[in-house]
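Lab notebook page, bench 4
Experiment: in silico fold of construct C2
Operator: M.H.
Input chain length: 103 residues
Purpose: comparison with the prior construct
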Amino acid sequence: MKRSLLWVTLGLVTASLGAHAQEVNKHARILAAPCAACHGTNGNSVGGTPVLAGADRAHFILQMKEFKSGARPATVMHQHARGYTDEEIEMLADFFAAQKRGQ
């Protein structure tokens, strides 16, 4: 009986973690949608702006925080970056790092 309860509990915890991951991924995709206007679908720019797909997570976060603080000059990125919390920047970093670069 105890063993069955353990497996049921483990299954419920695993299912809730999977649902949370999907929710986070959905939220990250929504946050990333405006980026497509300049950086292309899923971060695959066709030129003129950096490709974000497959970006190094730490580098992405650093760049966004520099835009946000004004330490890195930009035309519009500082305005975009200021609209994101640090947690959202990390979600964006995870999202873009997971995207495959176009060929």
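Observations: The helical segments are 2-32, 36-39, 57-69, 77-82, 86-98. DSSP finds five helices and no strands in the chain.
Next step: discuss at group meeting.
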